[in-house]
Amino acid sequence: MRSYSELTDRLRALRGWKVRQVATIWEYPWFVVEPTVAKRAPTVLLSGGMHGEEPAGVEGVLRWLECGRPGNINWLVFPCINPYGWARNQRRNRQRRDINRQFQRRTNTPEAELIKRLVKGRRFEFSFEFHEDVDASGFYLYELRRQPPYIGEQILQAVSRVTPINRDSIIDGNRATGHGLIRREIGRNMTRVRQRGPMAFHLFRHCTDHILGSESALTVPLAQRAQAHVTALEFALSLTFRA
Ligand SMILES: [Zn+2]
What gap in Å lies between CA 25 and CA 81, rounded to an integer? Predict the structure, then answer.
């Protein structure tokens, strides 16, 4: 079992961020992190821990919060979406559900319903989800955007200095660029995505025009995987909010 109280302690020790418990799910406090002061500025949604057996996602979010400052951005951060699974290193929640398949319609999956409520009526400059892929040979990225510019290739160039990139032409059943990027096209393919009910599609429909999702491979140590996610986020921020 991983210690959720250690994670809670790290959240409560953050400087420059406001940590709010917004729910209790399966007896675990569920946290949202935001800037201390709300600003009239674009918002970035950052999340980790959708799947409990992907610890580098949560670790990446924590490291970002511990080292990064909100800057002139409004943040909405879900540091650990699935505490029950994270504590047990299991993908699914207590109902044995993959939370990332519960966004297509109303379900009684509390994590998904809570997120839908928290994002309702909000707009995000982009959403960035940190994940891991237990079968992958290297780091890769999903990007879904309504119109150019696409920034995934540049992000991957930066991440390649930190960790090996997955250069396969097919990754997890999706066509990839050969540089670790899966660019989701809008159109026919989206029907299938919608039926699978990921959070990303819910957000893309209702809350944002730009989705990024990073997937680290378990072939390197946790610290390196977490750093890869942080590097990807840093480049997404610098490419999106060029001064
Ligand atoms: Zn995942």
Answer: 10
Q: Please give the Cα distance from 228 to 51 (Å, whole number).
A: 18
**pLDDT in the model for residue 226:** 98
C-alpha 208 – ligand 1 centre gap (Å): 20
The residue among 96, 84, 20 whose CA lies nearest residue 52 is: 84
The CATH architecture annotation of domain 4-240 reads 3-Layer(aba) Sandwich (3.40)
Taking the centre of ligand 1 as the mean of its atom positions, its distance from the CA of residue 131, in whole angstroms, is 4
- pLDDT tens by residue, 164-184: 999 999 998 889 999 999 987
* CA of residue 242 to ligand 1 center, whole Å: 29
Question: What are the residues facing 23 on neighbouring strands?
Answer: 30
Interval between CA 1 and ligand 1 midpoint (Å): 19
